[in-house]
Amino acid sequence: MNLKTKKQLLKLILISGLFFIQSISNAVPSTDLSGISLIPKPVSVIAASGNFKLTPKSTIFLSGQGVELKNIGNYLASKLTPATGFGMAVRIATANQSPGNIYLSINSGDAQLGDEGYQLTIKAGAINLIANKSAGLFNGIQTIRQLFSAKIESATHQAGPWQIPAGTIRDYPEYSYRGAMLDVARHFFQVKDVKRYIDLISAYKMNVLHLHLADDQGWRIEIKKWPKLTSIGGSSQVGGEKGGFYTQEQYSDIVKYAAERNVMIIPEIDMPGHTNACLASYPELNCDDKATELYSGTEVGFSTLCTGKEITYQFISDVFGELAAITPGPYLHIGGDESHVTKIEDYIPFVNRVQEIVRKLGKKVIGWDEIALTTLVPNSSVQYWAKAENALKGVKQGAKVIMSPAANSYLDMKYDSTTNLGLFWAGYVEVDKCYDWDPATLVPGVGKENILGIEAPLWTETISTMKQLEYMVFPRLLGLADLGWRAPAAGNWNEYKLRLGQHGGRLKAQGVEYYPSKLVPWVAQ
Ligand code: ACM
To answer: How many whole angstroms from 410 Cα to the centroid of ligand 1?
Structure first.
């Protein structure tokens, strides 16, 4: 046997050993807190001896009052009850409690934890979760879910025991903005689907859902002053099938549901391009006063609002005015990408004027990276997707950057040449490509201090069902959630893929049919 063969043999034995240890550790509940695969990876995990065990009498105790804390307690109960079959009562804390309970408390005074961090102490008798804000408690609850075996995620009763090894976890995010984007314009997704998406992204501590509400193929949000936007513009979608839209009431319901899961909704109305749906609804928005035909294809870059008409700005003021009134978050997204048929000398004053409209509504502007070609109003953010030079131009104007590089973070790109769904224009995005980049070093000149966070967009030209959506999103979204949360030095692909391998069963238990990438050592659960 030559040296190379010997080395290969040794490597094989080592790898098989690792797999063996993994399968063993999976078969029985983990006995070491620091051995549990958490995504995102926490800042610090210190194991101790002993185990916490849920019992049929386990109660969630709240130290404090208030609706928010109560909602968080009820949320935790709703996550633990179906699989355990335990009642999980939620009560205000009193002294001298019996073992097996979970204590949630808001305890401002630990500055390092910030708004979203938490500290979780697990002892044989109790779990204590503390945070400065309810957002931190919500994030800590996601960690608690992952500390139980994967079957905790099942919607039906499963056999226990339900235990977690003792120790302490301290945790807080690297970036304050960790988002996903859903294009509901190319294909419309029902309110219940959006809620499921919010459930799934928030389980991995993502805190933004950007809704792409209007594009050439459809207008998806009721605007009371411009009703034809939805009656005409919302009527269709890619492929020519029936479309749909959210009433303002439904949108507000989504916003509330998201807020209860620490997710902020950012609405986008893309302009001046990507506007065929509104141009088909109202002839006066076209320079020739003629309504366009509804469009159900997948080309981009052929439409533009008439930038020289006053009615265009009245329209935009009305649309953003109504949206601002039902969007509690600070941002409105104005799109601005791929306006290929808008002359640059029209594009620049148009975007400048739209920014002013948003600013006057008391909201902050986000736009795709092309908006950095204009004069950005203070507190704007530029969403980098295509051109590094645009991201840099944004930074030079003092804007923050949201990192959504298409080649790494677009969840509609095919995984490889065998993927039936998705597009290919930014290249294949296998699970490692999606993970193996550092937001703070990807674009020279755009550093951590310039970056608001990361976002994983899902464009839906080829995606029309939740099953298809989930196959494209999972497992890539988990990697982007990890990248947005953990410090850069705390992970790398080789370490992460082992953690990810432990999450297949957890996704399956939630009914998610993820893409089983061959690059990941999936562990049967
Ligand atoms: C984009 O993908 N056109 C932002």
So the answer is: 9
pLDDT, tens digit (0-9, with 9 covering 90-100), for 76-114: 999 999 999 999 999 998 876 788 999 999 987 899 999
Quick check: pTM over 0.85? yes
Which residues partner with 381 through β-bridges? 366, 400
- 338 included as an active-site residue: yes
For strand 59-63 and strand 89-92, is the pairing parallel, antiparallel, or unpaired? Answer: parallel
- In the three-class reduction of DSSP (H, G, I as helix; E, B as strand; rest coil), residue 90 is classed as strand
Taking the centre of ligand 1 as the mean of its atom positions, its distance from the CA of residue 40, in whole angstroms, is 27
Per-residue pLDDT tens for 470-495?
999 999 999 999 999 999 999 899 99
The residue among 178, 188, 191, 230 whose CA lies nearest residue 212 is: 188
Q: 210 and 231 share a domain?
A: yes
Q: Is the CB of 412 under 6 A from ligand 1?
A: no
**Among protein residues, the one whose CA lies closest to atom 2 of ligand 1:** 385
The CATH code of the domain that includes 165 is 3.30.379.10
Q: Is the CB of 338 under 6 A from ligand 1?
A: yes
Distance 215 CA to ligand 1 centre (A): 11
Examine the domain organization and report whether 337 and 368 are in the same domain.
yes
Residue 409, domain member (yes or no): yes
324 in a structural domain: yes
**Catalytic residue selected from 338, 430, 461, 470:** 338
- pLDDT of amino acid 24: 37
List of E strands, 94-207: 101-106, 118-122, 126-131, 163-171, 177-183
Range of the domain at 230: 177-509
- Which of the listed residues 183, 413, 459 should we mutate to test ligand 1's pocket, taking the one with most ligand atoms within 8 A of CB? 459
What backbone phi and psi angles, to 5 degrees, belong to 437? -150, 155
Give tens-digit pLDDT for 247-280. Answer: 999 999 999 999 999 999 999 999 999 999 999 9
